[in-house]
């Protein structure tokens, strides 16, 4: 594939975005950018530095203090805050419960979008970027845009399986499954760059598809767009 390619993948939590995006990046030899990890990393830093994450002004004032960096190698994506690896801590229930409030603050979005665009520009072959506003706001001229969906039951089941595989106890699994529904409502209903399908995005319902089927579909779409 020649020339930098941007594949924008959006969708709600549990739609399979991360797994699909990483596999597509791998198949096409592109970088991979998990923008949700960046919102989580900033949330982790705010919580650790005593900032009240429910106070939008406090979040706006503090959000440009830490250096949030996402490594874009699809074989080993990294996420650091001020040089510290936070890939573990950003997946805790505490960060997950608070990240939507942080992601709703316009100053946070402006700052992270800038870093996201710079990361994409630095990827030699191009990038697969996943999040909530990749196709609508961050990369409006993306080569291909995909909006992944899945039934609420399929999303909850996937998230629960992921958590169980990590050895998380059942009570936490149940709490985090409920959290997923609340988070989607918050992410879709906020004023600043809500989760939305871009007009020119292709929607793929992953509920009854295997990972390989979804990846084949997305890779096929990208190849079609590149050769068009
Ligand atoms: O994909 P994820 O669950 O790791 O994302 C964490 C949160 O960050 C999610 O609740 C919504 C928010 N987010 C966002 O607002 N915009 C993005 N581009 C990516 C994530």
Rg is 17 Å
Q: Order of strands across the biggest sheet?
A: 2-6-1-7-8
Weakly predicted, low-confidence segments? none
CATH top level? Alpha Beta
Percent of residues in helical segments? 40-55%
Architecture per CATH nomenclature, i.e. the level-2 architecture: 3-Layer(aba) Sandwich
Given helix and strand content, the structural type is alpha/beta
Tell the overall outline.
globular
What would CATH call the homologous superfamily?
P-loop containing nucleotide triphosphate hydrolases
Instruction: Give a list of the ligands.
Output: 2'-deoxycytidine-5'-monophosphate
CATH structural fold name: Rossmann fold
Major β-sheet profile: 5 strands, parallel
Q: What's the total helix number?
A: 9
Account of the protein in words:
- The protein has one domain: P-loop containing nucleotide triphosphate hydrolases (Rossmann fold, 3-Layer(aba) Sandwich).
- The chain is built from nine helices and eight strands.
- With 228 residues, it is α/β, with parallel strands linked by helices.
- The model has no long low-confidence stretch (mean pLDDT 93).
- The strands form two sheets. It has a five-stranded parallel beta sheet, sandwiched between helices. Strands 3-4-5 form a three-stranded antiparallel beta sheet.
- A hairpin with a 2-residue loop joins strand 4 and strand 5.
- The structure holds 2'-deoxycytidine-5'-monophosphate.
- 2'-deoxycytidine-5'-monophosphate binds next to helix 2, helix 4 and helix 8.
